[in-house]
Amino acid sequence: MNMIRFGIIGVGNMGTNHAHNLYNGKVEGACLAAVCDIDPSRLSYIAEKMPEVKLFDMAEDLIENAEIDAVLIAVPHYFHPVYAKMAFAKGLHVLTEKPAGVYTKAVREMNEAAKASGKVFGIMYNQRTNPVYAKVREMIRSGELGELKRFVWIITDWYRSQSYYNSSSWRATWAGEGGGVLLNQCPHQIDLWQWMLGMPCEIRSFMEYGKGRDIEVENDVTTYARYANGMSGVFIASTHDTPGTNRLEISADKGKLVVEKSSITFYRNKIGEKEFNATYRGGFGQPEVEEIKVPITDVETGHVGILQNFTNAIVNGTQLLAPGEEGILGLSLSNAMHLSDWTGHTGIDPMHLDEDLFYELLTEKAKNSTFTKKTEKMNLDTEGTY
Amino acid sequence: MNMIRFGIIGVGNMGTNHAHNLYNGKVEGACLAAVCDIDPSRLSYIAEKMPEVKLFDMAEDLIENAEIDAVLIAVPHYFHPVYAKMAFAKGLHVLTEKPAGVYTKAVREMNEAAKASGKVFGIMYNQRTNPVYAKVREMIRSGELGELKRFVWIITDWYRSQSYYNSSSWRATWAGEGGGVLLNQCPHQIDLWQWMLGMPCEIRSFMEYGKGRDIEVENDVTTYARYANGMSGVFIASTHDTPGTNRLEISADKGKLVVEKSSITFYRNKIGEKEFNATYRGGFGQPEVEEIKVPITDVETGHVGILQNFTNAIVNGTQLLAPGEEGILGLSLSNAMHLSDWTGHTGIDPMHLDEDLFYELLTEKAKNSTFTKKTEKMNLDTEGTY
After folding, report:
1. Among A19, A80, A132, A332, which has the highest number of CB atoms less than 10 A from its own CB?
2. Mean pLDDT (chain A, rounded)
3. For B283, which residue in chain A has the nearest alpha carbon?
């Protein structure tokens, strides 16, 4: 069987990581055939480390001429839908970095192009390979938790110093990224949120922009969400707290789940809350609880896992763990959060948000930006991040 | 030296508790001289258990004729300011149960009456005797945490079943309590919030009324708060989650504090975040952290501690741990939360809230109530609650 030949669009921090994985044969049935980058120094790096790989300085050229089967898109977020659409038009499979894009309008078009092409479309939601969140999802879907009542997810462990923001000119600008923590650091968790818990019907967000940092985008977000079934949620994300927290608590009829430091504790009610409430007569008192350490046996396969699953989908039609079309869900949540803070509106439905208004306000921010970016030349080591 | 003679107004669940403490000599320098209650069966109970204590069926009569030095007010919240003002007018010292009242207008008048009388005025904020929160307060005030950035307090461990709500006719009604979890269960923590962290300048609250319960008031509250210095806060309270959580996390320049299960963990940055950010050049990376279990040596003295401190304040001018005048702070927070949810307004300043609008909306709710209260006769054992 032939190897699936990958072309990587953009070999900055993340793209280089993927290049090493493919080049070093970590993905069975796949190889790295080509890369492109507008920065000549990045191409020199690849030429030196991976001499057989073809080099291009334009994505358009790579897509047109590289003799590849699939592209992996690892350029700034605005360009994900742009290059994905080009690649689909050329008949290539597409794996895009997260987020799917910056605004849902463009992502909707990308999804349509994917559908029309019939090609495999994946998104690098490597956190879906994290067995902890997969287990939580399974416990919810199997009914083990019963009806969901509340979640509180504090994600303040994405600490980024000013030097990080200064490492690339596009980082943390409206024109370059179209957002901050929601677009760059948190897309994984925003996806996990909807993947595990489903989409809320109302969003109210409160943000701080450039808190303690010389940046123009949000680096502190507090969101209140409401679900059709009455469940409520709080989602907190920041990049300036240290040491941070990553703690997810889910309250449900049959007990409470606490996810922290890669472990899951299930406080299980011996009688469901509703049943207890309906029958108890003693005033104070609550159901008896068992504390269970939920065993996690699977191993996180990360970026390589997503690359392997994507390759398998091309080769033998394996089901995608992270279908590209689902990228719009997390982005809809993110856009709804921004729109809510920008307009002061409560109750924005992420599935029915005013896409034109969002696009208009975002474009305004980029156009009216008076921010002067200070950049220091450096390539960051993304080992250990995602 | 003469004993301070207490009269207790209301010997329901909580008042009976206080009566036992005073009658059994748990408060040095104080004795129980009289009680009043509109329910004859409560007076029969006291007559049987505490034969020397004078009985009254009207608060007005007790205040006028009981030959006492101080009153302890333990009736439904609306009546706290009413009886406090009467008692001050008669020249009595006053210790009121929490909350100070239901709306700040009345509490402001009570505070003025207290000031005019020159008598000792305390409030039963017994959680201020909890050494855990006292320690957190001290760490903040001493500057050990540096500038505060964020707090998240999840207080979902006030589980109350329907049978609790059915135990008294005034419970969980707009006319009887003027609110739910904010007025009955959480006033302690709302006070601790402002006592430890100060008053925010903006409030936005989201509430559920009668969630999973046949009651008309709020039993699920999520509040976002903003401070003048840029700190943000999230305060979550409910009475229908089980098992619940009581977890306070405070993020600050010099580290993070986590308070849970009566223990404090301090994750201390070896270099403050601001300083680290200003000097670090490595992109990813954060200050080194030490994990410290903060020792708690003091013992919680609870209701008896507040009674003793109040008595000492009368006898030798000891400083009050919980001055009655401070009750308006927690109530202002609580009123601001309600007003924000009722009006949908963001950014309500609890120190400058529209008291007339709040009172008008509250009165409307009580007047327009179509709720039929089902009551079962019972006296709850409040041992172990506060």
Report:
1. A80
2. 95
3. A164
Cβ–Cβ of A161/B285 closer than 8 Å? yes
β pairing state of B232-238 and B148-155: parallel
* Residue A45 CB-density burial (10 A; 0-12 exposed, 13-18 middle, 19+ buried): middle
Instruction: Mutate one of A229, A284, A343 to test the B interface: name it (highest B CB count within 10 A).
Output: A284
| pLDDT tens per residue, range B58-113 | 999 999 999 999 999 999 999 999 999 999 999 999 999 999 999 999 999 999 99
- Listed as own residue / partner, the contacts of B261-264 with beta carbons closer than 8 Å and 24 or more positions apart are B262/B132, B262/B296, B263/B132, B263/B293, B263/B294, B263/B296, B264/B132, B264/B135, B264/B136, B264/B293, B264/B294, B264/B296
Give dist(CA A301, CA A364) in Å, integer: 40
Inter-chain residue contact A150 with B232, CB threshold 8 Å: no
B89: which 2 tokens? 């007018």
Dmax (CA) of chain B: 76
Q: Are B243 and A286 in contact (CB < 8 Å)? A: yes
Q: Which of A90-94, A279-283, B46-50 has the lowest mean pLDDT?
A: A279-283
Could you tell me if A83 and A9 are in contact, meaning their C-beta atoms sit under 8 angstroms apart? yes
Position B12, amino acid? G
* Distance from the Cα of residue A200 to its chain's centroid: 17
Q: Determine which of A145, A147, A153, A163 to mutate to test the interface with B (most B C-beta atoms within 10 Å).
A: A163
The residues in A 216-245 lying below 8 A from B, measured between CB atoms, are 220, 222, 224, 226, 230, 232, 234, 236, 238, 240-245
